[in-house]
UniProtKB/TrEMBL annotation:
EC number(s) stated in the UniProt entry for this protein: 4.2.1.1
Reactions it catalyzes: hydrogencarbonate + H(+) = CO2 + H2O
Family annotation (InterPro entries): Alpha_CA_prokaryot-like, CA_dom, CA_dom_sf, Carbonic_anhydrase_a-class
An annotated Gene Ontology molecular function: carbonate dehydratase activity
Keywords attached to this entry: Lyase, Metal-binding, Signal, Zinc
Main EC class the enzyme belongs to: lyase
Entry annotated with the keyword Protein transport: no
PANTHER family, sorted: CARBONIC ANHYDRASE
Residues of the Alpha-carbonic anhydrase domain: 26-264
Family that this chain belongs to: Belongs to the alpha-carbonic anhydrase family.
The protein's name: carbonic anhydrase
Naturally occurring in which organism (per UniProt): Nitrosomonas stercoris
Gene3D superfamilies xref list: Alpha carbonic anhydrase
Species classification: Bacteria, Pseudomonadati, Pseudomonadota, Betaproteobacteria, Nitrosomonadales
Amino acid sequence: MKNKMLINLASIVFAGSVTVAVSAPPDWSYEEEPYWGALEDATQPVPLSYPYAECNLGKHQSPVDLADEKIVKSRSLNRLAVQYGTDMPSFINTGHAIQVNISQNFRGGLKVGKELLPLTQLHFHEPSEHVFGNKKFPAELHFVHVSRDGKIAVLAVMINIGKENTVFQTILDNMPYRSGEENSTARVWLKLKKLLPSGVSTNNLKYLTLAGSLTTPPCSEGVQWYILKESITISEAQLEYMKTFYSNNARSTQDLNERSILSN
Ligand SMILES: [Zn+2]
């Protein structure tokens, strides 16, 4: 009996793997945002044919409105520290954002309590995705960290207009113009710490935190967000230059549902 069940199970798994092998996630755009969950992968049977369903069905989606009155002070939050240093990354135009892919041998990351989550990439949105009541920032930077067991933590930094940021300029100068293109031969060192607010204690950052999701399809949940309370600046000219790559690449705010936004 047991053997027969195992054989049946094996045939189901085998049948499943045949169809999964040809999966091709559908293209998406910000114009289609209300329907991301309904975009179909024509190569797949139902329910796999809706690979972005979580965008519409998820209850812990990002970004959200971080209005003051929703924020709860907590004394028991983990200490948050960054160990960024310098890296020789590659520069990628993803088709939806400008992105910096951190090199394989980079050892830094985000330290949440005692756990270090390696930094894998950073990218930019214009305008900001998170909003603060009726305030929006001109842009937002996301540092994406992935632990060895697949946990994702994003450190978000709001961007204001002001003094030019030289590291951001290096990113713009090395970014390929064509969608989907990667520049992996720039061989420039980036001082990643310079993309953090000046004067903050990188050993003990002030932040807001909540459980959320990726803000682009497939909108997967289980992402822990850390939003810095201090912002950085880029110049007006830098913002305008960035908009020649992508503009309005920001998802609208999502319902908080039963989540809490905690602050240290
Ligand atoms: Zn992002």
